[in-house]
Known about the structure:
18 helices, rod-shaped, three-stranded antiparallel β-sheet
Amino acid sequence: MAAPHPGTTVLVTNAASGLGQLGRLDERFEIGAPIGVGGMGEVCGARDREIAREVAVKRLSSHSTSGQRRLLIEEARLQGRLDHPAIPPVYDVGLDEAGQLGFAMRRVTGTTLATLMAARDPAADGAGRATERLLRVFVEVCRAIDHAHARGVVHCDLKPSNVMVDDDDRVYVIDWGVATTFDDPSAPQRRAGGTLGYMPPEQLDAHVRLDGRTDIFALGAILFELLAGDPLYPRGEGLLDAALVGAADPRPARRAPDAEVPAMLDELCARALARAPDRRPARASELADQVSAWLDRVRDRAAQIARQRAHLARAQRDAADPATRARALGEAGRALALAPDDPEAVALVRTLLDSDDVPREAARELAEIADGDDRRLATAAAWSYLGFVLFPLTLLLQRHAAAWVLIASVGGWLGLEALALAARRGRGPRAWPWWSLGLLALQVLLFSRYLGPFVSAPAISALACAGMLMHPRVERVAPVIAILAAPLVVTVALEASGVWPATLTIGADTLTFASVVSDVRPTWTLAMLAFTALAIQLVGAAIGILVAAPAHRARRLRAAQAWHLAQLVPARRPPEQP
């Protein structure tokens, strides 16, 4: 067989069809001007006089041969046995006013798939949507071809220029002029040709029987061109040799690595273009189903992204107002669930979860926690205040103790215990820490007048300060420090100015401590100092335990929550193709 011109239709006839008795097309149809011209004749616009509809009439030229007449009548018969929305139906077969054979069919107007593919701009912003539209056209073509195969018809000349898309995006597979049947193994097949570049190897071998897998290869070639942006075989003088040898790698992803061809469609295309027919998908519906499934994923992903952006926008708006913080977190969580790799959603969720601001909705729970801490600290304070009993007892064992000191010491201790026990039972005044702070300052003052402001009094002041600052409702640090430091500062100042008698005398080699509120008996004074030192150690240890245990638990909890947050809200995930 001589090599045909690249890209032209190959015609080889070896079957005959009787014409039978045919009527006159011009009696029913008003045939107008040509709307397309081919090698065997032309396609004219026409009007159906009976039901006033526009149709197309395909008829032979006045120089047609008997073989061409047989081809046309066979085309009309094969196309007429098909009943699918994407295949133009045949209305009638007959002769025109000049006696030339023709048939009337649905008139199809629009744009060919080849034109749509050529008009697509890979660099444009809408290139992805354009490709999705072309893939949906491809799905409709596959459905139509699957219908033809179910009726025992193989098209044999599938190519982008034989697919029409009208203004309403309806798809039509046209030009069934070289179609043949394969449902009857004993019946001879027409080998009327096909188009190089889309024909499988077996279509070039007259000894191989064609079937639906012939069209599967052509569909694979169309899909390859649609995905890669280039035809399967390069056009030119070597087209026939390339078709005989086959493509070195029928994968569009390798031909066009920048096209981001989905792996699912890349594999499907390679299978459809297998040189051995038995390695191709058995039915065109398999191609349609897989491409349609991918398109559904793209559509669902687009809808998911739209919902995600809406949730994120609401979350960003609500995050600016503390009153809607809880709603913002809910919206941000929904946005993150829909797009776990969205950096905006990740950053917003992290910001909302890491914020120290207490939402209004959590204020009640936080108040209950504060009440629990209040009772726990009041219990510890009640036990620690027992140490103050040592001071009035020591004064009673000394001689000439000042009555006002005894009264102030016992009264201050009783007041501290009463406040702590009431708070422990949840019945104390809300400001009990501040009342206790004043009574503690009184105790520091009394101790500073017993042996001076530098013995025991500073340690008592420091422990009282630490205990007060642990309270959840004491948020102001400066007043606490000022109130507890005041007795020491006042004592030192008044003694230095001579207003109060000195409790500390510094000699050349000596330091002499004196009490201005009682006599000092060495035994009882040493015992009181020892017990005071021990009490200070115990109270300090208790404060350390009260602070350390919750702090350690909080750090462990925060570390665990941070780890879980990192798993839930990763910094970044690689994007996945649909």
